[in-house]
Amino acid sequence: MGIIGMGRIGNVHYQNLLTFDDVSVKTICDILIDEVWKEKYPAVSTLVKDYHQILTDPEIDAVLICTPTDLHPQITIDAARAGKDIFCEKPVGFKNEDILEAYRVVNQMGVKFEVGFNRRFDKHFDRIVEYRDENRIGDPQLLKITSRDPEPPSLDYVEHSGGIFMDMTIHDFDMARFITGQEVAEVHVFGDILIDDRIRKFKDIDTAVISLKFVNGMLGVIDNSRKAVYGYDQRIELFGSKGVSRAENILNSETTFVGKEGALADTPMYFFLQRYKEAYAQELRSFFGAVRGEHPVACSFDDGVRAIRLAEAAKRSLLSGQVEKVAEIK
Amino acid sequence: MGIIGMGRIGNVHYQNLLTFDDVSVKTICDILIDEVWKEKYPAVSTLVKDYHQILTDPEIDAVLICTPTDLHPQITIDAARAGKDIFCEKPVGFKNEDILEAYRVVNQMGVKFEVGFNRRFDKHFDRIVEYRDENRIGDPQLLKITSRDPEPPSLDYVEHSGGIFMDMTIHDFDMARFITGQEVAEVHVFGDILIDDRIRKFKDIDTAVISLKFVNGMLGVIDNSRKAVYGYDQRIELFGSKGVSRAENILNSETTFVGKEGALADTPMYFFLQRYKEAYAQELRSFFGAVRGEHPVACSFDDGVRAIRLAEAAKRSLLSGQVEKVAEIK
Amino acid sequence: MGIIGMGRIGNVHYQNLLTFDDVSVKTICDILIDEVWKEKYPAVSTLVKDYHQILTDPEIDAVLICTPTDLHPQITIDAARAGKDIFCEKPVGFKNEDILEAYRVVNQMGVKFEVGFNRRFDKHFDRIVEYRDENRIGDPQLLKITSRDPEPPSLDYVEHSGGIFMDMTIHDFDMARFITGQEVAEVHVFGDILIDDRIRKFKDIDTAVISLKFVNGMLGVIDNSRKAVYGYDQRIELFGSKGVSRAENILNSETTFVGKEGALADTPMYFFLQRYKEAYAQELRSFFGAVRGEHPVACSFDDGVRAIRLAEAAKRSLLSGQVEKVAEIK
Amino acid sequence: MGIIGMGRIGNVHYQNLLTFDDVSVKTICDILIDEVWKEKYPAVSTLVKDYHQILTDPEIDAVLICTPTDLHPQITIDAARAGKDIFCEKPVGFKNEDILEAYRVVNQMGVKFEVGFNRRFDKHFDRIVEYRDENRIGDPQLLKITSRDPEPPSLDYVEHSGGIFMDMTIHDFDMARFITGQEVAEVHVFGDILIDDRIRKFKDIDTAVISLKFVNGMLGVIDNSRKAVYGYDQRIELFGSKGVSRAENILNSETTFVGKEGALADTPMYFFLQRYKEAYAQELRSFFGAVRGEHPVACSFDDGVRAIRLAEAAKRSLLSGQVEKVAEIK
């Protein structure tokens, strides 16, 4: 298979693929590639600057798209037309028409397509779904997602991120659907800039409380912050007629100290690549399982589109100050 | 002192007062009082059916008003005019004009007046305020309150409760102000009937997500359910620029069992009188401290009025489906 | 009923009895009693210096013996002969012959006798016994008791305490029997002075690891320290063929703070009267239930004697440096 | 480098080495090797049955010895004479004279030698050492190690294991030294067969409480069981004059469910390779760091010998029923 885009996330996937017995990375593609990279990636046979070289290689069955978001739809279209199965990082794109065109081509070509919502593969969150599927939680009534980054991205990143809802909350929107198995009907946002006023010029915010009303009547709330100084705060709680399931943070260690002044424990893991280390590997294992036809794709193009619509509804609610209906987003 | 209204909460206060060295309950008043009660309350000298008998007793300095809510304002007015210091159960009343009249008289007569928001005296919640006051949390940015009852009240109770916001969420509205030290500017509610459809005829709901925007820009959310089968779920979290403080539930025991099938722990305490046992005693200790002039009243008439306005804003938001501004509630 | 000895523990029991509807404290006895005490104990009708005045009062059914330990046997004998039911603080005495004589008289007179091992009434420890009785733990195999005081007693107290095993570990020896329902066969002690060298002159120690072999083959270990700076550390763990049950410490609050430097939680409750507050009340409720014939005495004279024999075995093991058999202690 | 012995632990090390950029496995050796293994180990250039082929290869700098324990000393001697740096699985051998001879040759040849006590590299246990080194714990006074396997090994394994102390407790003996930084002076054991009576024929036990007295006067206790049905129970606690540090178990997930019947959490990880997954990788990283001269070997031959002496003392104490002095074991 091949990887298109060797930035941070491309490298995460590359490292994980090295430990897979049944998948080999033949070609990697990046516009910055030069001779030195050969030493950096000894296990790879071909390094290219133009992703079309990957798409025309008949030995390559599947590609990972890890480029900047604005390139996702075009590469998806080209890869689908080349008959490759596709794993594409989230979000599937920025512009609605491009995304829908890519969706159409993927469906038409019948290739497999998976969106990289890594949190679906986290064993702690999956445990909530297990409790739900065992019908321990009963009828779901309330969903709560806490999702706070340890520190804000650079202003440069913010500028091209598509805004907090498209860049950060989109994971939570996907989890809202994944954890409950329900669709969201209405969205209301209270948002503010409480951390760094410089993002005002990008019309973005850094702190938000996003309320959800689901189609089946159940309620939900996501709280987001760009800066939780104590680490990456990622908790989910699903409450229903028979009980509640909660996924707590993963700490740097399970060791405590208790002295005269109080009890000390370690903070949550700080870095998302560390927190979701196993989930990233599991995500690719699942994708290649789907490529081999062992099971359906775990996170479909449709899932990618629906998460984007929730992000769009949130954006509109922030502007309007009122509730927005998801069905009205096309 | 005297107690007016010897229902459940009147009796809770009575039992607590028995253990106070420096306060004695001279008279209790209840419309149901009969001869048998003398044996039930041996420590009390006088039992009366008409609360005016308490108000005219010059030996009585202070009264506890524990009657149904609709009587609170009139008894408050009468007690204030009689020069008694007043502890009044929450909420201070139902009708706005009655409440404001009572407020006016209390101020005019200069008696001390405390509203019974017992959670302010819970050591676990107070610990959050301590962390805040020590400036460990930094600038507060997000408040989260989980407040779920173990089981819904009777339909009869619901009918006269004033609705979920006035009966149940009012505690959370008071905590929202108490924990943050900030005033709420805007309220948005998503609410639904997910537990028992029979409350629909009272135009009430049983599940709610209430988002808050504070005057200082910080955000908040309260989630309410009338039925958490696992017990009384009372958690608060205050997140700020320097960290987060969380108060967790109090369990029936700190003992666990771990076997092949998993680890078992006990559920949160089920009954509010058990959960807030110490807080109820502390609340009265504080009130009598204020009566003796040792410190100001901990929860003033103004606090009572402001909580009611938040409940009213929530009610309006549920009806309008949109954000309501608290300043517009008079 | 009457209380003999109004030191710290006598007063704890007195306060608890005030809240009991069905028990009234008629007389209290203390050699230090004077006129001022009448104001201090308004609920008591008689205050005496000589405990025989309690024993000869036909209106008094039961007595609490809360004097220094060396007086326990004689007062027990006198009270038993006067036909009173007896609650006696631990340990039942110091000298073996005195204890056995008191035991004989109690049996002969057929009065009820309970030893004040308050920890048997702690809901957290009782929960382990519940798990055991539900046969969740299976065959018990290992018992672990951590029992550490927050600070050492005064040297003066140490001198008359009977040594660490008789004063402090005796509670743990009783718990070893209570939690497992088994008898101890052999004891081995490693002990040392690691906190304050001044207790060496009393031939006492302040830190110990006490290993136990039970008659049924199961094993156990108690660790003791006179000084856990972080609070009163009281944990028990029972491990068996089907699982393990653990009782953890009770913290000053369930509120945490997580900041950049780590997560903070509160320390275990510091003072034993606070930690075991509910257990002390429950202990007396149980005693008076037994006095009224509702159930057998929960902690018998025999239990008191067996705990003392374990303390004696530990003392001998510390001296001999070897294993001591409990059956050889008479 | 080369690996000698490709059983379970040899394969664990092999998998970890695949992810190291700076180490390559040239040759693996196993007496069972055949043609099929070439496909199983594509990254390896040479597969041999005779370990001498590894020792004579000048391209190989270091070897991992992962054979059965009785072969460790001879291979160590041969590898040291061949000038290879050596990583040897625990224990370093069974027979005292063989071990001491190997030790002598290693010292004489000046090669680096590390014993595979993987728990030294566990981040949770290391955190205790960090707290100790920061002088937060103060003077260490008590060490407690809980070490329970999820299920007993096969009887066949037990027969050749060297007994519970040499096979299982040896890890705990090493941790006792590592966590405290102190040497053990005396050992006392209570042990029993409480799980499976069939091991009686090998004169082994399955449950033990091992008390320790350290040279500096501090005390310790290890409890061992061959069968904790709920998973691999690995906890350590170090208590001192200024506080206590505790490393708790790692659970299968940090997700809970709370329903009417109680709260459920996941069990500790069951399998030692899963529990210590990161520690095994870290152990090798450290060894190759030492081989490259970046830091001293983290766990020396002397550490290996001292752990064996503690195991021997425990064995003697079980037989004698009394305390054994470690200094008397040669």
UniProtKB/TrEMBL annotation, chains A, B, C, D:
GO molecular function terms noted in the UniProt entry: nucleotide binding; oxidoreductase activity
InterPro entries, alphabetized: Gfo/Idh/MocA-like_OxRdtase_N, GFO_IDH_MocA-like_dom, Myo_inos_IolG, NAD(P)-bd_dom_sf
Source organism of the structure: Liquorilactobacillus uvarum DSM 19971
One Pfam family per UniProt: GFO_IDH_MocA_C3
Every Gfo/Idh/MocA-like oxidoreductase N-terminal domain range: 2-117
Family designation: Belongs to the Gfo/Idh/MocA family.
Segments forming domain GFO/IDH/MocA-like oxidoreductase: 129-244
Protein name: Myo-inositol 2-dehydrogenase
Keyword NADP: no
